[in-house]
């Protein structure tokens, strides 16, 4: 059936879990593009005859053209949604993406990501008084300024903003500024204990 | 120095500074730590909690975390040693010691700058006065010595000589007196008010007490009772104080209906059956594993088992019902167990004290009715869990989670652990009695846990060791014909590590001085070790539990016998 493969691509994206990025399906995209090319070539041939007065060909041309446009829409939707997902990941994981996510991106996407990164970083630098403002932190207003954390591994010393050093030893418990330890929690060094 | 005003001298000085909290490995300390953590959360005090299981790890934890720390809170550790001497802190560091171990070291008490004690004042009345133990005139005596060397006239010199001899004599007397006073003071180790209770009362004074904190205080107080740290009178005193808090926090409506929602913590005071874990076990097993009743009926013997069956029959509790999970028992029987036991106990020589303990129970939602003693046993079991893949500190965090009531699964696992502990405890007591291993050495009884038995590893931990020693002594006293047994203390040895060839030795005071719960073995062990020149380690904070090499044991016991005679 016409445009079936393009629909597959969109379905594939929809099937993937929230917050994950499926591998870039280059193979299928190429197939879709080839299909579009053949359709286009056929149309080009037939268009001449139609222009010469064989009006019964017109409906077939119209159908092929609709298929081409549908393919295009599906491809664009596929690419756009992937970019959207990557954008979300930038806000979630900060500027360095995990390697498995990176592996699933195509080269153009990597380029786009880098540019997006640069734009965002430039923008954040202009905010605030000095040194900019990290917009990616505290996406939702935190309930408390401090959190109770538990150390999961021997991490060594950690310097806080006010200059004191804290020894993060396995199984020690600390009550720290949320902003300071948020990153360590994401890295799996600390565990947030909900009271 | 004693902290007089908790808010001004302790709490306010901790604000806006990072605090290091060092916590000992016991349930009471853990509860106190939880209360303190809650207070810190209220006022956003930044802190670090590190569990410590002995003086060595206390020292290490302090060294590791000391950087930039000005305030250190010690919970249930450190009062019995000169903390400034041990840790060699910088001058600006302040120590706040909240410890139930007694006696408090005199240096801690009289250090006005660096050490602050969070304790009840009336419990420190036995401490020797300053003049008796410290003397400020040491320079004087040096000066007079120097003066002696001055070329003065013979007469004057003679007079000085007389004076200095007098002074020296007086000084010697004072020194002897000092040693005597200090010996009297440190002769007995005992325990003061539970630290969780002290912390809770402080929270109450700050108007920050909640039902949750109250439950922690209850658990702390009960822990002291379960591990034989405080006598029954003291326990009752604390329970009465706690009960007024309980009724304040758990008010009920006029028609007996609870005003509180089901989903919050409810605490109630009741005369609880003093049977270990019976809500989470079968009634029959629970009776067999509870110390007072098991010792009175001698349940480890065949005759005792018969008597128990008789007792149950007389109470009208079918044996089939008693041997299934308590929660699955017939509801009418279940609600009458206590009343029936109290009705028929006299015939079997049981007293009210053996069966009923005024205690508290808490309920959270519709499930999880837990009474305080069971809670303590579960926490202690998870603190002393024997899982070798886990670190000690993992156990600490697990017990802390249980106190948080974060997951019922963890609590259930801990209760299972507690049951396993009790089972091994009773079978150990039974085998010591059956094999007549409890031997009278003259001034005391002694018994060794056999090495290599399956259960012996349970007793490498201080809390279960205390319970085992006490159970053994009580069981022995109930069977022996020796009338003196009541007045004999017990020394119990248990293997600690087979690879290193070490064992733990614990000494507990005789039963007839049970009202005081004062233990003289700390000093006795110290002297015995001194007289034999042996290296014994006392790693924990209880001096009556020591660690030594197995081959030194007999020599040590000879010395101990000669000291106690």
Automatic annotation (TrEMBL), chain A:
The keyword Nucleus applies. It comes from the Eukaryota. It is found in: Chromosome; Nucleus. One of its GO terms (biological process) is DNA strand elongation involved in mitotic DNA replication. The keyword Transcription does not apply. Its main location: nucleus. CDD domains: GINS_A_psf1, GINS_B_Psf1. GO terms for cellular component: GINS complex. Residues 143-194 form the DNA replication complex GINS protein PSF1 C-terminal domain. Residues 33-127 form the GINS subunit domain. Keywords: Chromosome, DNA replication, Nucleus. Belongs to the GINS1/PSF1 family. PANTHER family: DNA REPLICATION COMPLEX GINS PROTEIN PSF1, PARTNER OF SLD5. Component of the GINS complex. Required for correct functioning of the GINS complex, a complex that plays an essential role in the initiation of DNA replication, and progression of DNA replication forks. GINS complex is a core component of CDC45-MCM-GINS (CMG) helicase, the molecular machine that unwinds template DNA during replication, and around which the replisome is built. Required for correct functioning of the GINS complex, a complex that plays an essential role in the initiation of DNA replication, and progression of DNA replication forks. GINS complex seems to bind preferentially to single-stranded DNA. This is DNA replication complex GINS protein PSF1.
UniProtKB/TrEMBL annotation, chain B:
GO terms for cellular component: DNA replication preinitiation complex. It is found in: Nucleus. One of its GO terms (molecular function) is DNA replication origin binding. InterPro entries: CDC45. Residues 135-152 have a biased composition (Acidic residues). It comes from the Eukaryota. The keyword Nucleus applies. Residues 135-159 are annotated as: Disordered. The keyword Cell cycle applies. One of its GO terms (biological process) is DNA replication initiation. It holds the Pfam family CDC45. Its main location: nucleus. Keywords: Cell cycle, Cell division, DNA replication, Nucleus. Belongs to the CDC45 family. PANTHER family: CDC45-RELATED PROTEIN (PTHR10507), CELL DIVISION CONTROL PROTEIN 45 HOMOLOG (PTHR10507:SF0). This is Cell division control protein 45 homolog.
């Amino acid at each position: 059936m016409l445009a079936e493969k393009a629909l597959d691509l969109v379905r594939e994206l929809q099937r993937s879990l929230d917050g994950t990025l499926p591998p870039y399906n280059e193979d299928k995209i190429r197939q879709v593009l080839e299909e579009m090319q053949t359709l286009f070539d056929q149309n080009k041939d037939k268009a001449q005859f139609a222009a010469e007065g064989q009006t019964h060909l017109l409906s077939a041309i119209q159908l092929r053209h609709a298929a081409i446009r549908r393919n295009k829409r599906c491809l664009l939707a596929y690419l756009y949604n992937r970019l959207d997902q990557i954008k979300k990941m930038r806000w979630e994981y900060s500027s360095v993406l995990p390697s498995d996510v990176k592996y699933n991106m195509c080269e153009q996407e990597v380029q786009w990501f880098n540019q997006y990164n640069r734009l965002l970083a430039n923008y954040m630098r202009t905010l605030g008084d000095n040194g900019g403002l990290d917009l990616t932190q505290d996406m939702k207003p935190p309930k408390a300024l401090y959190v109770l954390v538990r150390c999961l591994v021997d991490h060594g010393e950690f310097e806080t903003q006010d200059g004191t050093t804290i020894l993060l030893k396995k199984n020690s418990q600390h009550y720290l500024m949320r902003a300071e330890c948020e990153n360590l929690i994401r890295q799996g060094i600390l565990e947030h204990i909900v009271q | 120095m004693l902290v007089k005003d908790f808010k001004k001298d302790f709490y306010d000085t901790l604000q806006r500074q990072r605090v290091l909290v060092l916590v000992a490995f016991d349930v009471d300390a853990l509860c106190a730590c939880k209360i303190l953590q809650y207070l810190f959360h209220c006022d956003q005090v930044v802190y670090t909690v590190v569990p410590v299981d002995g003086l060595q790890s206390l020292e290490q934890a302090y060294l590791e975390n000391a950087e930039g720390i000005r305030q250190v809170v010690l919970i249930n550790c450190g009062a019995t040693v000169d903390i400034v001497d041990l840790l060699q802190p910088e001058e600006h560091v302040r120590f706040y010691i909240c410890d139930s171990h007694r006696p408090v070291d005199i240096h801690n008490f009289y250090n006005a700058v660096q050490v602050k004690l969070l304790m009840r004042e009336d419990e420190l009345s036995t401490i020797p006065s300053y003049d008796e133990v410290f003397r400020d005139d040491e320079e004087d005596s040096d000066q007079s010595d120097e003066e002696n060397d001055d070329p003065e006239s013979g007469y004057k010199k003679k007079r000085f000589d007389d004076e200095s001899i007098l002074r020296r004599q007086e000084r010697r007397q004072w020194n002897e007196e000092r040693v005597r006073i200090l010996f009297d003071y440190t002769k007995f180790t005992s325990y003061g008010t539970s630290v969780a209770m002290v912390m809770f009362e402080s929270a109450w004074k700050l108007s920050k007490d909640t039902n949750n904190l109250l439950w922690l205080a209850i658990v702390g107080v009960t822990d002291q009772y379960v591990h034989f740290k405080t006598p029954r009178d003291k326990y009752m005193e604390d329970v009465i104080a706690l009960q007024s808090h309980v009724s304040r926090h758990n008010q009920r409506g006029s028609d007996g209906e609870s005003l509180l929602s089901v989903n919050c913590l409810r605490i109630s005071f009741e005369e609880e059956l003093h049977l270990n874990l019976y809500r989470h076990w079968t009634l029959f097993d629970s009776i067999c594993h509870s110390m007072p009743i098991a010792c009175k009926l001698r349940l480890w013997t065949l005759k005792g088992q018969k008597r128990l069956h008789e007792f149950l029959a007389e109470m009208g509790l079918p044996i089939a019902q008693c041997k299934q999970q308590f929660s699955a028992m017939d509801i009418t029987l279940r609600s009458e167990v206590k009343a029936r036991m109290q009705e028929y106990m006299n015939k079997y020589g049981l007293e009210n004290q053996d069966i009923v303990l005024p205690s508290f129970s808490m309920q959270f939602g519709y499930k999880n009715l837990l009474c305080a003693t069971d809670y303590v046993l579960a926490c202690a079991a998870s603190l002393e869990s024997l899982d070798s893949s886990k670190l000690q500190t993992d156990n600490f965090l697990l017990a802390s989670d249980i106190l948080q009531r974060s997951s019922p699964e963890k609590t259930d696992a801990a209760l299972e652990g507690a049951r396993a502990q009790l089972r091994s405890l009773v079978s150990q007591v039974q085998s010591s009695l059956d094999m007549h291993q409890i031997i009278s050495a003259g001034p005391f009884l002694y018994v060794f846990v056999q090495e290599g038995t399956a259960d012996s590893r349970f007793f490498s931990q201080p809390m279960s060791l205390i319970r085992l020693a006490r159970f053994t002594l009580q069981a022995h006293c109930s069977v022996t014909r020796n009338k003196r047994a009541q007045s004999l203390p017990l020394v119990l040895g248990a293997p600690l590590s087979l690879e290193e060839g070490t064992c733990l030795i614990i000494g507990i005071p005789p039963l007839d001085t049970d009202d005081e719960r004062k233990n003289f073995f700390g000093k006795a062990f110290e002297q015995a070790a001194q007289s034999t020149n042996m290296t014994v380690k006392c790693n924990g904070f209880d001096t009556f539990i020591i660690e030594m090499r197995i081959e030194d044991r007999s020599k040590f016991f000879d010395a101990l016998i000669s000291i106690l005679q």
